[in-house]
């Protein structure tokens, strides 16, 4: 009999011998309830520490204080059949002290790609100086792309610790132009990072700091020489050999599993089989002496091109291309690889001139009228609005976007009137004025100058009667519009009269547009211009 049962029996004998003493029973019940509660608390704590030691069915690990009714019914089953379970003491295990790693939030500001054709950008100006605080979304620098000047914003808060590319210099797309430090204490680390990048010796010395919160100090990389190849591989491995090597191994009776390959990723080559079979490799025949002597005398293409250039004239100066001029030069060189042809068409413009005289006071220009007429004609001849970019297929463009050539100081740009066939003349005029204003300020977004599907170039306002335009890359055709001039014409009855005429020349990509297609398009365009009532609808 355990201590709890003995204690319970003594209390019964002492209390029930005097039935008139009710206080003894109350004290007994109180002490019994107290002992049962303590026992239940100890058991619950043991379950929490190790559930497998519990004598009771598994229940949720929550402490429930029993009621007197529960205590009486539970006492016979628990106290008589089980002992109080020992409580396991937990010892605090000391953790290993971690070596604090220096965290540095140093980020790079990269040269962005402001257009699909941009390969490098030029720093026009910096809004901020070194040491200034930058807020996320704030403009930091103005970058000159191939067609426009655009503001570059920062994506993080921090100090402008170091400027790598100063004003007036260029950097390739993706290169770091500045460093941003999260705190003022990290500014020296950012400057050290900028100095290491500018010196170009980052691979020789260990990196002083990492980017985006990595460990600040990194050990220098040590080159470990690869172990020499052994004659037989250790352990099982998969044999990878070329078909010719397997054939040679079978011919010369060489165990291919014992040959170590010297090819890529351990591939066994025919030379490895010949070496294992003891066959001397064939020596290549020596090249003729005359040919060997002539090889060094052949200049490189770039050297030959530079040598063929005539020397500059006395008193002349060499001016490098601006970013825009370089892009125009590159596009024109690409256009030379496209097979093009040209078709001219004379158009009577008396009705067009009368319409222009009515719309000019309302701010509608002749360029907008011609762009609208071209868009309406392209809607009837979608092949002229198509484009071929890879030389293997062409695509019909879902939108008719008329790009109009605009001359600028030191270059040329083509703002795009998007969906020109769906807008009326007045909306097109407002849009055109906005585009020209942004183009003069070099503030066009890439989608506003590189999304054209057909280009219009108008030199009629300069008195030019005819000219040919060069096809832009990625488009199917370009229209060159000359000046409208009085011309003597004869009608079908043989009577002469004077009418205003302009000559339109279209340059087209012959891979997707043929002569009949372009002739039909020009015929439709002429009908719209000669009867311009539909332009105002």
UniProtKB/TrEMBL annotation:
Record's GO cellular component, any one?
A: chloroplast thylakoid
Which cofactors are required for activity? (R)-lipoate
Q: Sorted alphabetically, which PROSITE patterns does this protein's record hold?
A: BIOTINYL_LIPOYL (PS50968), LIPOYL (PS00189), PSBD (PS51826)
Can you give the residue ranges of the Lipoyl-binding domain?
A: 106-181
Q: Which SUPFAM superfamilies match?
A: CoA-dependent acyltransferases, Peripheral subunit-binding domain of 2-oxo acid dehydrogenase complex, Single hybrid motif
Q: Which UniProt keywords apply?
A: Acyltransferase, Lipoyl, Pyruvate, Transferase, Transit peptide
The record ties this protein, via Pfam families, to: 2-oxoacid_dh (PF00198), Biotin_lipoyl (PF00364), E3_binding (PF02817)
Top EC category: transferase
MF annotations from Gene Ontology:
dihydrolipoyllysine-residue acetyltransferase activity
Family annotation (InterPro entries): 2-oxoA_DH_lipoyl-BS, 2-oxoacid_DH_actylTfrase, Biotin_lipoyl, CAT-like_dom_sf, E2/Pdx1, E3-bd_dom_sf, PSBD, Single_hybrid_motif
| Listed GO biological process terms | pyruvate decarboxylation to acetyl-CoA
What EC identifiers does the entry list?
Answer: 2.3.1.-
Q: Which residues form the Peripheral subunit-binding (PSBD) domain?
A: 240-277
Q: Which family does it belong to?
A: Belongs to the 2-oxoacid dehydrogenase family.
User: What name does this protein carry?
Assistant: Dihydrolipoamide acetyltransferase component of pyruvate dehydrogenase complex
Q: Which organism is it from?
A: Rhynchospora pubera
């Amino acid at each position: 009999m355990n201590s709890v049962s003995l204690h319970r029996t003594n209390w019964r004998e002492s209390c029930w011998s005097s039935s008139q003493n009710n206080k003894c029973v109350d004290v007994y019940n109180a002490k019994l309830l107290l002992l049962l509660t303590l026992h239940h608390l100890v058991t619950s704590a043991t379950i929490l520490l190790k559930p497998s030691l519990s004598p009771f069915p598994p229940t949720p690990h929550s402490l429930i204080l029993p009621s007197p009714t529960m205590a009486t019914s539970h006492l016979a089953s628990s106290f008589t059949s089980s002992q109080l379970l020992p409580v396991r003491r937990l010892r605090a295990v000391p953790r290993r002290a971690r070596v604090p790693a220096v965290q540095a939030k140093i980020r790079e500001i990269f040269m962005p790609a402001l257009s699909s054709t941009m390969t490098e950008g030029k720093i026009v100006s910096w809004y901020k100086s070194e040491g200034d605080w930058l807020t996320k979304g704030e403009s930091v620098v103005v970058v000159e792309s191939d067609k426009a000047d655009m503001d570059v914003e920062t994506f993080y808060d921090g100090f402008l610790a170091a400027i790598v590319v100063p004003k007036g210099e260029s950097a390739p797309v993706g290169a770091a132009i500045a460093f941003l430090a999260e705190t003022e204490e990290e500014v020296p680390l950012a400057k050290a990072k900028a100095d290491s990048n500018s010196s170009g010796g980052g691979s020789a010395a260990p990196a002083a700091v990492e980017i985006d919160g990595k460990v600040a100090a990194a050990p220098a990389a040590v080159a470990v020489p690869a172990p020499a190849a052994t004659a037989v591989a250790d352990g099982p491995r998969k044999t990878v050999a070329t078909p010719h090597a397997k054939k040679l191994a079978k011919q010369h009776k060489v165990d291919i599993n014992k040959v170590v390959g010297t090819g890529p990723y351990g591939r066994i080559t025919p030379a490895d089989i010949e070496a294992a079979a003891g066959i001397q490799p064939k020596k290549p025949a020596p090249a003729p002496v005359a040919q060997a002597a002539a090889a060094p005398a052949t200049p490189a293409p770039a050297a030959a091109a530079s040598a063929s250039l005539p020397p500059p004239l006395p008193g002349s100066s060499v001016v490098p291309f601006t970013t825009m001029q370089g892009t125009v030069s590159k596009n024109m060189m690409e256009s030379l690889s496209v097979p093009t042809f040209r078709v001219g068409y004379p158009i009577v413009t008396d009705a067009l001139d009368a319409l222009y005289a009515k719309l000019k006071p309302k701010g509608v220009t002749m360029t907008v009228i011609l762009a609208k007429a071209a868009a309406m004609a392209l809607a009837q001849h979608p092949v002229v609005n198509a484009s071929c970019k890879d030389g293997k297929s062409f695509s019909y463009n879902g939108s008719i976007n008329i790009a109009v050539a605009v001359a600028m100081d030191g270059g040329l740009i083509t703002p795009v009137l998007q969906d020109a066939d769906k807008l009326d003349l007045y909306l097109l005029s407002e849009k055109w004025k906005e585009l020209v204003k942004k183009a003069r300020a070099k503030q066009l977004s890439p989608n506003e100058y590189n999304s054209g599907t057909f280009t219009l170039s108008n030199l009629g306002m300069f008195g030019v009667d005819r000219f040919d335009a060069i096809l832009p890359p990625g488009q199917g055709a370009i229209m060159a519009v000359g000046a409208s001039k009085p011309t003597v014409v004869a009608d079908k009855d043989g009577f002469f009269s004077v009418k205003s005429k302009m000559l339109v020349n279209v340059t087209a990509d012959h891979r997707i547009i043929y002569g009949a297609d372009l002739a039909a398009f020009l015929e439709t365009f002429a009908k719209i211009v000669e009867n311009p009532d539909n332009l105002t609808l």
